[in-house]
């Protein structure tokens, strides 16, 4: 048996606010950051697990402290029993009653648990010699449901429901994996739409996105209606009347304000309105969905746990579900979220961008296609062309699609020199 010998953490921050990359109505000056963890072991294979929580600058040190607080649960433990029962490991970590009190099952500690869980999955996939998407896709339905904590879900999704979904998709797994390897998974890009960009930059990047084969772009909105109308009109002039253009308010509006604002933009036919109000306001999202129909409502990147997703789906508050690889407690909880979406027949279009989110979340969508929903139609993964060069295995996105990684692991491992160069010292390093 090998043992965990250390959780090494780093506070990594990139000065993206200097170029307004990532800017939106709620977050005008984000510095894309990673609360980074490496799980070290004494195993002869010298495999380490890498993971992170994405933040946007101040507070990244708080998130690092949350990860550090979990060291007592893991350091000194035998590794193999933890990897062999990842469902049990997940339930043990979220079940610490004193740490759970800080949530429960949400916020800094829940994301910290997700970082550790994802790091363990990184080790498990590397040991198996497979990328995470493939490792998960080749598990039996019974093995997959054993990863899920069904507590608080059974009025919407039971273990038996999940097994039925997974067994229905089992027969076509081999063919879908071949399709994925051949043609990739559809992508859309937010790169043209940051709120701090000039009209000229928006137009140039929209043209480039279409030329690169993306099937949709997204615009940030919500600060000023007249500006939004002008920018959306310019995007339509570039992209044409039928090209899908989504909009994202990043939680800026009150419920009634959201309805009025989106309807004022309806002439431009938004593909969806994303995060129109507080991510915790399930009934508010339901009211908005009724008030802006047939424009779809999308949310989920800040949904704190599987229970929020359950309620959004039960309330018919969303038509597009957006999971995030690091907002909830890691791979296990996101499998629950994917199963919920499949049960309710709602497509999943994950949130990505940031630091390494594209590298991480692609595995979940690819697993969903192969082993859960069996569908790519109406589904796509967000893509933002930022900071990929800092990862050992950057995303392979071309011709408007994510192509599956072949490197074993979760894809969350950063280059050692990038970790050193961008570790926070109280001032920014030039990007």
UniProtKB/TrEMBL annotation:
It comes from the Bacteria. It catalyses: L-fuconate = 2-dehydro-3-deoxy-L-fuconate + H2O. Keywords: Lyase, Magnesium, Metal-binding. Residues 199-295 form the Mandelate racemase/muconate lactonizing enzyme C-terminal domain. Its cofactor is Mg(2+). The keyword Metal-binding applies. Gene3D superfamilies: Enolase-like C-terminal domain, Enolase-like, N-terminal domain. It is an enzyme of class 4 (lyase). PROSITE patterns: MR_MLE_2. Its EC number is 4.2.1.68. This is L-fuconate dehydratase.
